[in-house]
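ERR on first pass: missing label on line 2. Operator R.T. fixed the label and resubmitted. Corrected input:
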Amino acid sequence: MTTVLDPTGERQVAERSRLERPASLEGKVVGLLDITKPRGDVFLDQLEQGLRRRGVADVVRFSKPTYTKPAPVDLRHEISTKCDLVIEALAD
Amino acid sequence: MTPRPSLPDGFVAVVKQDCPTCRLVEPVLVQLADAAELVAVVSQDDPAFPDLSGAGSAPECTFDDDLSISYLWDIETVPTLLRIEDGEEVERIVGWDREQWQDLTGLPDLGPGLPDWRPGCGSLSVDPLRADELAGRFSASGLRSRRVEFAELEDEFEAMYDRGWSDGLPLVPPTEARVARMLTGTTRAPDEVVAIVPPDLVECTVEKVAVNAVMAGCLPEHLPVVLSALEAACTREFNMHGLLATTFFSGPVLIVNGPIRQRLGMNSGVNALGQGNRANSTIGRALQLVVRNVGGGQPGGVDRATLGSPGKLGFCFAEDEEGSPFTPLSVARGLEPGVDAVTLFAGHGPTAIIDQKSRDPESLTRSFAAVLRANAHPKLPLKIDAVLVVSPEHGRIYREAGWGRDQLVERLDELLLLDSDELVHGAGGMAEGIPEAFAGMQLPKFRPGGLLVCHAGGGAGLFSAVLGGWVNGDEGSDPVTAPIRP
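pass 2 clean. output:
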C-alpha cells in the first residue's frame, strides 16, 4: 500500500468527489455493501430482489469487516471497479 | 521527529555482528559486564550477539531490528560506546581504541591480547540503501501534510491523475521518504511559510513545496531554486494571480544565474530552451505544480488561457554567463556578481530570429529590432515586455565589436522608437492599435527596463530568440530577480 503526502492546499477532502446520480438503474451494476450489523443481510436480500425486478444488469454483494470502522481502502477500490453505483445498508 | 527511545544510565554499547571490530570487542563487553559497568547492549543485526552469557552481570540486550535506536541516537559507527547520564548522552567513543575505552570506563586491562586499535564499521542506520527510508520513517512524523492512502489494487500513477494533481504528465509519488529526502535540500524549516499562493491565497509551507517538487521530479538540490522562484512569483510585482488567470499565453519563465547553474548541471547550451535537462525541466514544473495544487489554479478553472503555451508545463533555463559578451542578467538587474539568482518573467515563446548574414553589430541589431517590433503586435508600443535571448554565434559578433549589454539595449531603443502615426487605430488597414490622440509623436516599443537581454544556446546557429511577455506594470507583471536562498 502506498501512502503519499497531499500536495494540495487541503481545502477540500482528499477523497474524489461523488459521481452524479444515474437517471435510471436500467443496465447498471449495483453494489450492495453490508456494514455487518445483525440482520443487515436480510434487508439487503430484499433490496437485491427488488433491484433485479427493476432490470439492473447485476447486483454484487460486499460486506465490511466491521461496522465500527470505515470500509478498508481496498474494499472501496474493488467496489469502484466492479459497480456503477453502490448502496450501503444499515439494519439493526 | 519521532521521539528518541530511552537508554538506561551507564555505559551502552551499540554493535552489529557483521562488523569484525564488534566481534573483536565481544570479550571486552564481557569484561565490562563483569565489572557491572555495562548496562545495555544494542545489536543491529543479530539478537544473539554479543554472547554475554558468561558475564558476571546481565546487561539489558536490545535487538534494534527497526534501527530506531541507532537512527535516533545518531549512531554512525559500530561499535559505539555511549555513557548516559539522566537519560542524556554525555560521552561517546567509536571503534576500538584500548586507551580510549579504558579512559572512558575507568577500567584497566581491557581486551588483553587484542590489538591496540581497530577502526569500526558503518552503522546499519547510515547504510546508503536504507538512509532514505529511515529518514522518511523517523522524520516524517514531523511532516504535517495530510496522508493519502492508495488502495493495494490502485495504480499509484493513475491514482494521482484521478485526484487531479497532474499537469498531464506522470508524477513521482510523494511518499514520506521522498519528501523527507527532498527537505534535506534546504536549510529552511519544513513549516516555514514560503508564500501566499494564488488563486486561493493559501499559505504554502516549505513542506508543501517539497511535496510538489518530488512530484515534478526534482532532486533535493533543486529545491532552493523552486522556493526562491515561488517567493518571487507570489510578489505583488510579479502578480502570479493575474498571470494565471489571464486569457493570454504567458506563464512564469525562470532564468537562473550564478554558480548554482553548474552545481545543478543546468543547461544553458545546446537546446537551452528545450527538453532534456532534469533541472531545467523539473524546477519550472515544480513551481507550476505548486500553483496548481496548493494555490488551486487549474486550466479551465481560474486559468482562462485562450491558447496557453507549452512553456506552462514549466519554463526554466540558465544563462550562459561564461560565454557571454554581456554582464549576467541578474547583475544587470541589480544583484552582485556570483550571487545565485532567479529572474521571473511573465512570458512565453520562443519566437525565432534568423540572421545568418550580419557580421557587424549594427546590422544584427537591426534584425533583432525588426523581430522585436512585432512582439505581441507591431502596432502595440510600451505595454508588453520581452526577453531577447542572444545565442553564442550572435553574441560573438558583439564581443568582437566590443559591444556590451548597455550599448545593445541603447541601440535597440533607438531603432524601436516608433512613429505613432503607424500605430493608431486603422493605420496600415488594421483596426488594432493605439488611440488617434497619440498621433504625431514617437513612442518607444519597450518601456525603460522592459527589454531583458540574456545569453544562452548551443555553439552553432546564427539564431536568437524573443520570449514575448504579458502586459506589464500595475496592470500585469513586472519581472522580479531574487537571490536564491539555500
